[in-house]
Amino acid sequence: LLRRIKNKNVKVKMPYQIPVLEKLPTLAPDTKVLVQPKYDGTQGIFTSIDGHAAALTRSGTELFGLRQAAVELMELTRKSLGREYTVFAEVEPFPWSEAGKWALPGKLILGTPVKWKATVFDICPTTGFFAGDYLRKSAYLDRYAVLKSIENSLVGCGFSVAPIQEEEFGRAIAAVNKSFYKDEWGAVRAKWLGIPCEGVVLRHGGNAYKFKPSVERDIYIIRAIRSKKGAPGWMGVDVKEPTNHVEIWGGVTERNWSAMVGKVVEVRELAVSSAKGGGNPTFIRSREYEKEFDATTLEIGICE
Length: 304
Description:
By secondary structure, this protein is α+β, with helices and mostly antiparallel strands. The protein has eight helices and 18 strands. The chain has helices at 2-6, 67-81, 98-110, 126-131, 134-137, 140-149, 151-156, 169-177, and strands spanning 20-21, 32-38, 42-49, 52-56, 85-93, 116-125, 159-161, 165-168, 181-182, 188-192, 195-197, 199-204, 207-211, 214-226, 232-238, 241-248, 264-270, 282-286. The protein is elongated, with a radius of gyration of 23 Å.
């Protein structure tokens, strides 16, 4: 522990953690799944190492700004559950803002004072966590029951417990897709159970899946571009907002790379953030025969 305090770049070797898969499973619409809001911040793993409380990222970097909270959680679980438990939470800036979200991890690592709020979504005996087997073998609803049993104590430490609801797969996806809204900072977010969030996490058969809603847009392709590594892409503008430039990388191939210049294409992009790189659009299909766009309305020089 003293070595970590002196050298903040030292990482803790982390055991198995449940991966949240990016691709949704193929399920019948009426399949029952467990749904939770996907909070929008940085994950904090509140645990203890050699008897010393610590808050860590998924990769094992210590979040020094959360050390006192880790101490309180360790004491809470010892008193309420009879042994030490590792608590998994999503830590968000308070009040939430997109800029605050991106700045939060660095501030927590350095121990810079910052206002935050945390929502607990999982729990595990610390010995079982570092043995690497408990999360693999235990059922999520059993772990969630442990969380609910100490919910009042968690609230006393400033932590809330993420709500969970059983829902049909198809209904859950449709509900999240319909919940888009733009917040006061211009970030596009979703809602689940009235909670502003990035999307939802669906749990089924011991697996967890991330679902971030997507939106479809019509983009006029100005020119073909390449990444620094040579991958083909397009620079375009939203036909409804011609001043809004969009880079498209997914679905662009050498075959369609130059062919789509000067045409309107339909793209799908994650509606998770207005930040640069917050979900590159993916090409779906050309709409050149369905949509018209007058390129002469673009500013001089853009099409060069």
